[in-house]
Automatic annotation (TrEMBL):
The chain crosses the membrane at residues 21-40, 154-174, 205-228, 234-255, 267-288, 464-483. This is DUF3526 domain-containing protein. The keyword RNA-binding does not apply. It comes from the Bacteria. It comes from Hymenobacter aranciens. The lineage of its organism: Bacteria, Pseudomonadati, Bacteroidota, Cytophagia, Cytophagales. It holds the Pfam family DUF3526. Signal peptide: none annotated. The keyword Membrane applies.
Length: 487
């Protein structure tokens, strides 16, 4: 009996939805918007891949140039005919010129779906012995951090636009029966009204979900290839997005169960969407920004500068005097640049950079401590808003969450220290500062790029089960209300 009822209801729902021209038009618009968001995400991914390709080509050009110059110098008996500061046989010169390396965060296929922190966090750095330069937002006064979705992408469409379509899809499932006069007929039938309404919501949810994934799956495969289908990230994403849609269908079922008019149902659902999707996340963002303010770039730069000044006011003066006042460096003869001077500058850079790095580490620790506190607070409060939870989950599963960019930044810091361990002993040793050769060039450390798409901090299984319980509770509440209303 249930199978025949489901078959009749399925046929009825298809005809009802097809005849609703407003809904058909809205679905067409949302389809275009969904395809546009996927295309935009694919375009950003291709642009990033092109940039990474250009970085690789630039690196090859620099490496070839260094090898050719060192080969020519070796062929001329170790004599460099040009300006001494360009002589690559000085370890200090090579560290400044051809030594800097690029560190790249390899793109993850699913980042097509969620920009996350990708529009404010760098996916590559140029790493010098004295800094890591990301070339993006370098001149900003504030430190860039975007806790909430700000780009028109797939995640924006899913989190903010599709719930509105679901509201149009479901707001009058029950109220329309009353307004059209069929409610009395339903009450006099031998079928459970609560069960019939639950079936109708389930059928509409299944139709919506099938339509959505039949669009997203093939389009995403065309954009990035089928490789993402073999990742756990994708299947967790499918589960969370499907459950997010189920939440809004369940909420509409509960609102319908109170037997309000269609207008009140629509207003109630839209208000809930505004509250959970916009108001709560933004209030949380404002509260976190005030509770854990992020230090500005000015304060970080000031702390580094003060540490350097304090160093040179004390120990640095003695070092500078010892290095640059010695007869060997001949620093007093300003019109003559000697090999000893290059060595002296290398020593100064080495010693002063250690102090600057220590100061920068303290300043950066203050910055990242505040961001980490914000992230911990978001993890505690994200369950109060399904939209906020979805933003966090989509960014993490797409490899564009702050945690993943932060891990990339930490890896780059370690790589810079590796470069320093390679160049500093050569720069500061009298035995090696002026004999950099092809063997040394081949041994220059290279960053090993990789994707950053792990999400162990997120507890996805726990969050998914919790919201599945919420959806189940909504359906149970709506079903109970309808049973009471049918009496």
């Amino acid at each position: 009996m249930s199978t025949s009822i489901l078959r009749v209801l399925f046929s009825h729902e298809l005809k009802s939805l097809y005849r609703n021209r407003v809904l058909v038009t809205l679905c067409s618009i949302i389809l275009v918007v969904l395809l546009a968001s996927l295309w935009i995400g694919g375009s950003l991914l291709r642009k990033q891949q092109r940039t990474i390709g250009q970085i690789g080509e630039h690196h090859r050009v620099l490496a070839d140039s260094l090898n050719q110059r060192l080969t020519r110098i070796a062929a001329h008996g170790g004599t460099y005919p040009g300006f001494i500061w360009d002589d690559p046989t000085f370890a200090y010169n090579t560290a400044r010129n051809e030594g800097p390396q690029y560190a790249v965060k390899q793109p993850f296929a699913l980042q097509v779906l969620a920009t996350g922190q990708g529009d404010v966090q760098p996916f590559y750095y140029k790493v010098y012995i004295n800094k890591k330069q990301h070339l993006v937002h370098e001149s900003e006064i504030d430190n860039s951090l975007l806790q909430f979705v700000g780009t028109f992408d797939f995640s924006f469409v899913v989190v903010y636009l599709l719930p509105l379509l679901i509201i149009v899809f479901t707001y009058n499932i029950l109220s329309a029966e009353k307004e059209q006069g069929t409610w009395v007929l339903l009450k006099t039938s031998n079928q459970s009204i609560a069960r019939l309404m639950l079936y109708r919501v389930a059928i509409r949810y299944a139709l919506f979900l099938a339509f959505f994934w039949l669009v997203v799956g093939p389009v995403l495969t065309l954009l990035v290839g089928p490789g993402f289908l073999g990742t756990g990230n994708w299947w967790w994403l499918v589960g969370f997005v499907s459950l997010y849609f189920a939440f809004w269908f369940g909420l509409a079922f509960v609102v319908n169960s109170f037997s309000f008019s269609s207008n009140i149902n629509a207003m109630t659902l839209i208000f809930t969407w505004l509250l959970l999707g916009l108001l709560v996340p933004n209030l949380l963002h404002i509260g976190l920004s005030r509770a854990y303010p992020i230090p500005s770039r000015i304060s970080m730069s000031t702390a580094e500068r003060n540490a350097i000044n304090a160093y040179f006011e004390k120990d640095g003066q003695e070092l500078t005097k010892d290095v640059f006042s010695s007869p060997r460096t001949q620093i007093r003869q300003a019109s003559i640049v000697t090999p000893g001077m290059v060595y002296g500058y290398g020593v100064i850079v080495y010693k002063s950079q250690e102090i600057k790095d220590a100061a920068a580490q303290v300043a950066e620790r203050k910055l990242y401590d505040q961001i980490e506190r914000q992230q911990q607070a978001i993890r505690r409060w994200q369950l109060i808003s399904p939209a906020l939870l979805m933003q966090e989950v989509l960014a993490a599963l797409a490899g564009t969450h702050w945690h993943q960019f932060n891990q990339f930044s930490l890896d780059v810091d370690e790589f810079r220290r590796e470069q320093q361990r390679f160049f500093y002993p050569k720069m500061a040793s009298e035995a090696t500062y002026h004999n950099f050769d092809l063997q040394d060039a081949a041994a220059i450390p290279r960053f090993r790029p990789r994707t950053y798409a792990v999400y162990e901090w997120l507890r996805v299984g726990q969050s998914l089960l919790l919201y599945a319980g919420v959806v189940g509770g909504l359906l149970l509440l709506g079903y109970r209300n309808l049973l009471l209303a049918a009496r």
